[in-house]
Structure formats: C-alpha cells, structure tokens
Amino acid sequence: MIKKLIWDKKDIEGRQPVKGGEKLYPNCDASVWTRSCEKEILQPIDGKITGSIPKWIRGSLLRNGPGNLKFGSSTFEHLFDSSALLHRFAIQDGTVTYQCRFIETNVFNKNRAAQRIVVTEFGTRAVPDPCQSIFTRVASIFHPGEIGSDNAMITVYPFGDQMFAFAETPVMFRFDVESLATVERVNLFDRIGIVHHSSHPHIMPDGRVFNLGLCVTGMGPKYSILEFPEGEKQWEKPKIVATQPTRWKLHPGYMHTFGITENFFVLVEQPLSVSVRNMLVAHVKNEPMIASFKWFEDHNTHIYLLDRETGSLKHTFYTDAFFFLHVINSFEKHDHLVLDICCYNDPKMLDCMYIESLKQMQSNPDYAKMFRGRPLRFALPLNTSRIPSLGLLNKVFRRSGQKSEKENLVTLQTTQAKAYFKENNMIFCVPELLCDLGCETPRINYEKNSRKEYRYFYAISSDVDANNPGTIIKVDVINKTRITWCEENCYPSEPVFVEAPNATSEDDGVILASLVWGQGDENHVGLIVLCAKTFTELGRSEFLTPSPVPKCLHGWFASKK
After folding, report:
1. Is residue 272 helix, strand or coil?
2. Hey, which of 84, 346, 425, 491 has its CA 20 to 30 A from 63?
3. Torsion angle, CA of 308/314/317/322, rounded to 10 degrees?
C-alpha cells in the first residue's frame, strides 16, 4: 500500500535513453550540494535587503550542513562526509548579517593538519594511517567518537540557553552563537554509554530534552530514550528513561528521528539495519559505515509506543516496509495516536547522495525515482480491547457460514488511514497520503504544536524532476491542500517557522529559509522571509561571499529576548 501511495507514472513508464549532452532534470542543479567553502567568514558581513524584514524578528537563524568536500588531493565520496559548516543569519531591527565557520571537530583538525582524509567516514574510506594498527581500529569500536569520526554535519539544537551541533555519533559540540566558535566537545558515550543518537531531539516546554539513542548491553543492543533534565549544564546529566530491545540482535535499525506525544515515545523501526557483523568487519578493514547497512525489503516496519511514565513497551504496530528520515509530528486524539512521516519505498536515496551520483544525476534515468518520497499519515488505534480479535471474528463467521471481512480499527473521522487485525492479533496499519509532493526537512510551529494536533507543516521539495525543485511547500494536513514558493535557479533550505508576537492562529508568523543559487552563482547566499499564512515574500537579504556557499541541512532559530 505504501508503494502505491508513493507511486508515480514515471516509475512505471521509465525514461528514454539519454542523448549526448541532454539533461534529464534540467531544472535541478545538484552542484549546490557539491561545493566547498574555501574561506570562513568570521566577522559578520552586511547584505543587500529588498522588501522589508519585520522588526519584531530578533535573533539568529543558525544552520548546519556540508561545508568542505576536499583536503589536499583527497575528496570525500559521500555528501554526509563533508566537514560540518555552521552558518549564522543575525536579524535585528530589520537588518541581517551573515557569517560562517567550520566546527572544530577532531576529524576536521586531523584532516586539515594532514591535508588529506585520514579518518574513514560514513561513505568514504580514508588512506590508512601507518600509526594506527588493526588493534587500534578494533579498539575504536569500544570507544566511538574518539578514534573514529566525530563529524557533526547535520543539525543544531538548544540545550537550555546553549547551542549544540551534532550528527548521529555520540559526540556533540557546543558553540558560541555570536562567533560560531567551538566551545566544548561532549562525548555522550563517556557519560551514558550510547553508541549512536538521533539528529533530532525533542525540547519540552519545561526545558527537558529527550533524544533517542542506541546502547549495547549483555542482552544485545537496545533503543534507549535519553532525558536531559532541565537545569544548568543539562548535557552533562543524561539518564535513560526507557528502552526497547531491537528486533534483530545483530541488526539494530537505523533511526534518524523519533516521535513523542503526551503519553508515549514513538519509535519507528524500519527494516534498514546496521549489521553488527559487517560493522565489525568494516572497522577492521577500514571500510565506510554505509557498507554495514542492510535493507530487509521483505520485512515489515515496526512502530513501538513506549509509555513515558513507566518506560515500558505499551503497543506495537506493523506496516509495510518503508524508509524514512524525518517524523513530521505525532499526537494523540480520541484513543488514537496519529503519526506523520516523510516516507520512501526504500533507502536508495542514500545512494543518490554519493558525490559521483550527484554529479551524474543528469544522465541517470532512475535518479528521480530513487529520490521519490511522500508525506504519509498513520493512525494507530490505542484502545482495541473493545474490538473482537481477528481470531474470534473468524471463529464466529465460520460457525455462521459467512465470510469474514477485515474491520477498520481506525474510528477517527478526520483521516483515511486504516488499521486491521492480522494473524496473531497483529495490528497492521495502512497510511494516508497527506500531499502528492516530495517533502523533506519538515518543520511545524514546534513550540505550540509539537505533540499536539496541528494543521500545517512546512518543507522543501524532494522531487528532482519537478518544474522547480527549489520549492518551499506549506501543507494543510486537514484539507489536504498546499501552497508553494519558488524562484528560478534558487535553492532554499529547511523552512523554519517563527511565531509572530501575540499570534492568533497556528500559522501566524513567518518562514525563514536560507538561499543559495545554481548555474555557477556560487559565491552568493541569502535569507528569505515569507508570510507563513500566504507564502508571499516579505523581504530578503542577499550576500556576496569570498568563497562558494554550499546548501545546508538543518538548523534552529535562536530568538534574542
């Protein structure tokens, strides 16, 4: 059913062979991802403003993403290996300044000093270091983030009044919001023993922070919910408040995000796993981590609901295999848990992010299909005790001679999502399509609507074969409508919602997004401000920079009180 929801006519028909020089995706310039920043901008520079930047916006839009793909003659092979680069758009009194700076990770400093890639990354094999024996590489398995890579090239999140940059290794980097200078390196493995954590924690109204990690125990790997209690230096005091054993002891699932509601932690265990055996072999042979990934296409996706009060498993649901990176939002309503996710049929989009794949995309007829994803809604019935099980229904119908039919367990009137009993009383979920556009890096009015019923989310297009792949999308999940903003040859990043003072509705505010341009316009970056209600442009600031600016991934708006 998920494959049908993400189906596309082009997937069936295929494309004709490419003629010499012809571009299959003429409106998409992948070079915005493959640039390298050659010169940091340590002091803020002024830009050219058009339109009007609302004066009530005061703070910094902080961004993180790929910054440098090369050291000397060595080049990273996968986009996720690029050295982490922070960007800052400082907004005050209708003006905007820009600066950028690399995060001083151990791996960045080692590569810079050697002028070559010396540490194997997610998708790149480093030149072997003669000073590191095979025993040193084996030892690194037991102390992640120290000998291996600590690249922090994904996101930015606040812990209290401090900002951290991190990826999925257990290492986080605290940095100064104004200078972007790296201040502190924190390895959570040393504090709580996790070997991995998601790139998207959840910030509670009371200041607590929750994240999903993976720890290895004598009973095998377990997904672990980390709580960072509110208070001074909360990043130093994590504790595990819930755990869930992995489906396969030697194949823990890959998780980039997770969900949270008023009563549950929501873990989505897709059948993309990290093979423990292959990972051990990769460490010994100095191979990239991506070689450890294994996709079990014939196995279902599992959705676990862990009780926030007790930390124990409360419900398990099943659905077709799918790959995902980002949960949009989750909330409880009328004995159901609603879960919205940006889904793909399989993880082939990870292969699309190899640098060579990006460079060759214009001649690859399958590239758009590999990147095809859609936002889906799952409705998980929480109170099924009042509903006869499938086994009981079959028994009743056999006695009466009638044919049993599956009963939809979802009683919400606001969704077309379904759920049914299957064998062994498994509850199998069939999602609803929220929008027939590829949506990625989704954001909502987080402070007001995280964990609650909501109406709007904002995203960027992931359809490389769209008329304009550089599109910002606003989706109404109730009416299933959308509005968009785009500009020719312009590529916005993740849209961040900022609520207006004294807001009276969910979308009363603005959308902030960083901009870069294609077709050789590399030394050029901008910030756009859209009215979140209408998606009309209010204003922008554009900057000419001394070196190329790559497209970034995730970030946070740090308001200035």
Report:
1. strand
2. 346
3. 30
Q: Which tokens sit at 281?
A: 């072999």
β-sheet bridge partners, residue 344: 323, 373
158 forms beta bridges with 163
Q: ∠ at Cα 145 (141, 146), nearest 5°?
A: 85
CA distance 173 to 164: 5
Instruction: List, in order, residues 6 or more apart from 154 with CB less than 8 Å away.
Output: 64, 65, 84, 166, 167, 168, 199, 553, 554
The CA R_g of the chain, rounded to the nearest whole Å, is 23
- Helix and strand numbers (H, E) in the chain are 11, 38
Integer Cα distance of 220 and 247 in angstroms: 10
Q: What is the pTM of this model?
A: 0.93
- Alpha-carbon distance 517 to 550, whole Å? 9
- For residues 432 and 412, the answer to whether their CB atoms sit within 8 Å is no
Specify the DSSP element, H or E, that contains 517.
Answer: strand 509-517
**CA 189 to the chain's CA centroid:** 22
Q: Which residues pair with 303 in a beta bridge?
A: 268, 317
Residues in Cβ contact with 326 at an 8 Å cutoff, skipping those fewer than 6 apart: 200, 256, 257, 341, 342, 440, 441, 442
Cα-flanking dihedrals φ and ψ of residue 249, to 5°? -65, -30
- In tens digits, the chain (561 residues) has pLDDT values of 787 777 554 443 444 545 556 899 999 999 999 999 999 999 999 999 999 999 999 999 999 999 999 999 999 999 999 999 999 999 999 999 999 999 999 999 999 999 999 999 999 999 765 555 544 544 555 556 567 899 999 999 999 999 999 999 999 999 999 999 999 999 999 999 999 999 999 999 999 999 999 998 888 899 999 999 999 999 999 999 999 999 999 999 999 999 999 999 999 999 999 998 888 888 778 888 898 999 999 999 999 999 999 999 999 999 999 999 999 999 999 999 999 999 999 999 999 999 999 999 999 999 999 999 999 999 999 998 656 554 544 554 444 444 345 799 999 999 999 999 998 899 999 999 999 999 999 999 999 999 999 999 999 999 999 999 999 999 999 999 999 999 999 999 999 999 999 999 999 999 999 999 999 999 999 999 999 999 999 999 999 999 999 999 999 999 987
CA distances from 330 to 33, 216, 262, 341 (A): 31, 28, 9, 9
